[in-house]
Specification:
This protein is an alpha+beta fold. 31% of the residues lie in helices and 31% in strands.
Length: 255
């Protein structure tokens, strides 16, 4: 967690937009899992081409006045018809205005029925485009994803230094406090510039952000500090945090 706090902007925006995307996805899923759909899903073309014509009686008409699409409210038409001398009830949602304006309970409808499913002739069914709602979280996820990728790559580099890096000694050149993002205190730490030599004798100036503030009270410019240096690239390094070393029993000596 201390490594993640070193990248406050990437962490903040990555988690923020990912959280909103996940939250919207969960909310939409819960809404449609609990409410379901007002009318059964049917294959209009199949029933229209192969269905048997029959007559049905309108039993209820519900107008969804809280929803408006192109100045038209969706309407749920409930009806029943006889099949094998048994009454079959069904619902049919349409997005029609003038064509069903005069329709009333008790009116007869011309329908087609096939394998227990039915359609009202000459009226296309309407289903809310649920898939479009699930596209809304995608821009949030796409915006947050680059921050998370950057956070993963940068944190992975330092984790590899912690795990595989070789311990070396460096001399402190300068130390400068880094202030945090207000309220959440992420990004707070000390920027340390230090100098060390590679195995070939080249001098390297390194820069590392540590969240271990004890370095300010324990060390001064010119003092030696232990650092991790990558075995395959001696120009990659980081300051070894004293508290992390003691907490994880790395056995590194701090003067």
């Amino acid at each position: 967690m201390s490594l993640l706090k070193k990248k406050p902007i990437a962490l903040f925006f990555g988690l923020l937009f990912s959280f909103f995307a996940l939250l919207m996805f969960v909310i939409f899923t819960l809404i449609f899992s609990f409410t379901g759909n007002d009318s059964p899903k049917i294959d209009y073309e199949l029933i229209d081409s192969q269905g048997i014509e029959t007559s049905a009686e309108v039993t209820d008409i519900q107008v969804e006045s809280n929803v408006t699409i192109n100045d038209v409210h969706p309407t749920i038409i409930s009806y029943q018809y006889l099949k094998n001398n048994e009454a079959v009830r069904s619902k049919y949602k349409v997005l029609e205005g003038e064509r069903i304006e005069g329709l009333q309970v008790g009116d007869n409808l011309a329908i087609k029925e096939l394998n227990g499913q039915s359609i009202i002739q000459n009226l296309q069914p309407y289903r809310f485009p649920v898939a479009l709602l699930f596209l809304i979280p995608i821009p949030f996820m796409l915006f947050g994803l680059p921050f998370l990728i950057y956070l993963f790559i940068s944190t992975r580099k330092e984790l590899k230094l912690y795990k595989y890096g070789q311990v070396a000694t460096a001399r402190i050149v300068s130390m400068m406090p880094k202030y945090a993002i207000p309220i959440i205190n992420f990004g707070q730490g000390v920027i340390v510039h230090y100098e060390y030599e590679t195995r070939s004798g080249n001098k390297v100036i390194g820069e590392s952000l540590t969240t271990d503030f004890s370095i300010i009270s324990d060390k001064r410019t010119g003092d030696d500090i232990p650092i991790f240096v990558a075995a395959n690239n001696e120009y990659q390094s980081c300051v070894i945090p004293k508290l992390e070393s003691l907490r994880n029993n790395w056995g590194i000596h701090f003067e």
